[in-house]
């Protein structure tokens, strides 16, 4: 007999809307999340909740694309 699993509560909207850790820390392309291609500085983003400025990167495909 297996153990019943409790459903997990969904993440609060403000947490779910946050960019993934790797993108926010410049470890992956801001636009697509690529990590295995060369990455170049793409600019800076500021999150609404804390006002901190984050330096982000882009892959070759998304280089020069505006940060939204």
Description:
The chain has 68 residues and is of the alpha+beta class. It has a domain at 20-59. The protein has helices at 13-16, 21-24; strands at residues 39-46, 53-59. A hairpin with a 6-residue loop joins strand 1 (39-46) and strand 2. The model is unreliable at 10-16 (pLDDT under 50).
Structural class: alpha+beta
Q: Bin the helical content.
A: 10-25%
* Count of strand segments: 2
Name the average pLDDT. Answer: 81
- List the total number of helices: 2
Using the alpha-carbon principal axes, give the shape: globular
Strand content: 15-25%
Report Rg.
16 Å
How are the strands of the largest sheet arranged? 1-2
Extract low-pLDDT stretches. Answer: 10-16
How do the SSEs run, as a string of H and E? HHEE
- Ends: how far apart? 50 Å
Main β-sheet description: 2 strands, antiparallel
Would you kindly provide a brief summary of this structure?
With 68 residues, this protein is α+β, with helices and mostly antiparallel strands. It has helices spanning 13-16, 21-24, and strands at 39-46, 53-59. It contains two helices and two strands; from the N terminus they run H-H-E-E.
